[in-house]
Amino acid sequence: MSAGTVLAATPVIQIEWGSLLPVAVVLGGAVISVLVEAFTPPRARRAVQVPLAFAAVAVAGLAALDMAMAPVESSDGAAGGAVTVDPMTMYLQLAIAVSALLGLLVIADRTVQGEDAFAPQASAAPGSEYEEQTRKAGLTQTDVFPLVLFATGGMMLLIAAGDLITLFVALEVLSLPLYLLAGMARHRRLLSQEASLKYFLLGALASAFFLFGAAWVYGATGALKLVEIGAAIADGAGLDPVLLVGVVLILVGLLFKVGAAPFHSWTPDVYQGAPTPITGFMAACTKIAAFGALLRLLYTLAPSLNWDLTPVLWTVSILTMLVGTVIGLVQRDVKRLMAYSAIAHTGFILTGVASFTQDGLSGALFYLFTYGIATVGAFGVIALVREVDPEGHMRGEATGLDQWRGLGRRSPLAAGAFTVFLLSFAGIPLTAGFVAKFAVFGAAFGAGGVALGVVGLACSAAAAFFYARVIVAMFFEDASFGLGALLEGGAAVPKGGLGIAVRTLGLTQIAVAVALVFTLMFGVLPGWFLGFTDELSFLLLS
Amino acid sequence: MTVTAYLALASALFVIGAVTVLVRRNSIIVFMGIELMLNAANLAFLAFSRMWGELDGQLAALFVMVVAAAEVVVGLAIIVSLFRTRRTVSVDDENLMRH
C-alpha cells in the first residue's frame, strides 16, 4: 500500500470544538497563563494570573452547565470518539469546575501580611541564604495558577475520555502539575518536598500499571475505544486471561488515583505535606475526576464481561472503609485525619459504584459533588487556622489536634463552619453528607450487598467518633486556652503554639461560606438535585 | 519471532521494573524502574499492534513516549530539589511524617 492510498483511506476526523469547550477553555487558559508567566514583569503577574484562572474555570463551568441543561442527543462523541460527550461528562465537568473555583479562591488568598500558602521560590533550597533573600524580597510563586489550570483541564478531560490513550494522557496531565504543586508549601517545606516525591513515585508507578493494563486490553480486543472494547468483549473475548490481566491492571491504576485501599498509602503523607489549599483542591477535584473515569470504565465494560467484577469491588470497598476509619481513629493531626477521612469516603462512594445499579450510580454522582464541595470548604478552614506564638507572631498552619483546642472560643466562625463540614462528613441529617450516604448505602442494600451496607454503616458510625473528637476539642476542651491566656503564656501551650484563624483578603472566607451554603442546601432540600443525578444515571445506563 | 516472545519480554521488563521500584532505595534508580515499566507497556503495545495489523498500538506508544518525557522533567525536578535540601536521594530518608 502506498502512502497515497493510506492517506486517501484515512477518514477526516471531525473535532467538535463546541462539545470540547470546557476542556479547551481551561487548557487554553493554562497555555496563556504560561505565556503571562514568561512575558509579564514579576510584580504584575499575580494581578493578571488570578483573574485569568478564575475566568477560564468559570467559563468552562458555564459551558458545561449550558450543555448539561440542554443535553445533547447521544452522539459518537467528539474528536473521532476520543472524547465522550454525554450528560454525565457535563455534570462531572460542572462539579469539577465548581470545586476548582472554590479551590482557586483558597489558593489565591493571602494573609493581610501578604503571604500566600506557597514558597516564594520553590526552587530555593529550604534554609538556604537564597531562600531567605527571596522571602525578604517578597517574591510570589505565580506558577501555581498555570499548574492548577493544567490539572483542572486534565481532570475535565479524564472524565470525558472515550479511549484508553486519552484516559492515560488526561491522567498524566492532571497528575504532573499536582506532583509539583504538592512540593510548593511556604511553611514546613521539608514535609512538602517529601510529599511531592512520594506522590510522584507512587503516582508514576500507578500510571505504569494502568498503561500496561491498557496494552493487554488492547491485545485482547484489538480496540482502544471503550465502546469498541465493550463490543469486542460482548463478541466473545469473555474469559480471556489476557483481558483479565489488562482490566485488573487498569483498575489498580484508577483505584490508586481515588485513594482506595490497598493503594491508599500515598494519601495521608501527600494530604499532610502539600500546601493546604492544594490539598483541598486535589482532594475534591481529583476524587471527582478519578471516580468519573472509574464509573465510565466500569459501566461501559462491565455489562459485557462474563466474569463478575462485583466481588473485587466489594472487597476493595470494605477494605477501604475499614482502613480509613480504623487508622483515622488514632490520628493527632487534622490534615492527616482528613486524609483518612477521605480514604473512608472513597470506600463509601465505592459501595454505590459496586452496586452496579442506577440507584448506586446516582448516589455516587451525588456523593462526589457534595463531598467535593465540603472538602474544599474544610481545607479552606484548615488553611486559615495558623500557629500564633506567645509574642503574637503568625506562623504556619496549626494542624495538631492539640492546637485546635478551644478554637471555638478564639475563632467561633471558623470553628462553626468546620463543625458543619465535619457533621456532613459524619453523615448527620440535614447535611448533604447524610443524603449522600443514605443514597449509596440504600443502593448497596438494594443490590443485595448486605455485608457492604452493614460495614458501611458501622464504619460511618466509627468515623463519626473521630469527627466528634475534633468538635469536642474545638468547643468543649480547655476554657483556659483563650487568646488572652495564650498571650500571657499561662496555660500549657502545645508545641508550636495554639491555632487561631488569621485575617486574610477574604477569598477563603467566601469559599468556605459558599461550601457551607451548598452543604446545608443539599442536606435540607436534596430532592431536585437527586432527581437530576437520577436522570443522568438513567441516561448513562440506557 | 512470534508475538508471544515479545510479550514475554515485555512482561519480564515490567516485572523487573516493578521489583526495582519496590526494592531499590535510590530515588533515581526507582524512577528508572518506572521508566522501564512504561517501556515494557510500549513494547506490548507494539507487539499487539503488529498482531492485529493496525496502527492504533503504535500511535499509543508514541503518546506514551511524549508523556514519559514530560514525566522525566517533573520527576527529576522534584528529585533535584530534594537533593539540594538533603544531600541525599534515598527514599528511606524521607520519613518525617508520622505513620
Please provide a brief summary of the model.
The complex is a heterodimer of chains A (542) and B (99). Chain A has 542 residues and is mostly helical.
Note down, in words, how this protein is organized.
The complex is a heterodimer of chains A (542) and B (99). Chain A is an all-alpha fold and 542 residues long. Chain A has one domain. Helix content of chain A is 70%, strand content 2%. In chain A, strand 1 (385-388) and strand 2 form a beta hairpin. Chain A is globular and about 75 Å long. Chain A starts with a helix and ends with a helix. The model of chain A is unreliable at 1-5 (pLDDT under 50). Chain B has 99 residues and is an all-alpha fold. Chain B has one domain (3-92): Helix Hairpins. Chain B is built from three helices and no strands. Chain B has helices at residues 3-23, 27-52, 56-86. In chain B, helix 2 packs antiparallel against helix 3. The longest helix of chain B is centred in the last third of the chain and has 31 residues, at 56-86. The N and C termini of chain B lie far apart (49 Å). Chains A and B meet through helix 7, helix 8 and helix 11 of A and helix 1, helix 2 and helix 3 of B.
The main pleated sheet of chain B reads as: none
Strand arrangement across the biggest beta sheet of chain A = 2-1-3
Q: How many distinct beta strands of chain B?
A: 0
Strand residues, percent of chain B: under 5%
* Whole-angstrom Rg of chain A: 23 Å
Structural domain count of chain B: 1
The proportion of residues forming helix of chain A, as a percent range, comes to: over 70%
In whole angstroms, the N-to-C terminal distance of chain B is 49 Å
Supply the CATH architecture of chain B: Orthogonal Bundle
Radius of gyration of chain B: 17 Å
Structural class of chain A: mainly alpha
Provide mean pLDDT of chain B, rounded: 90
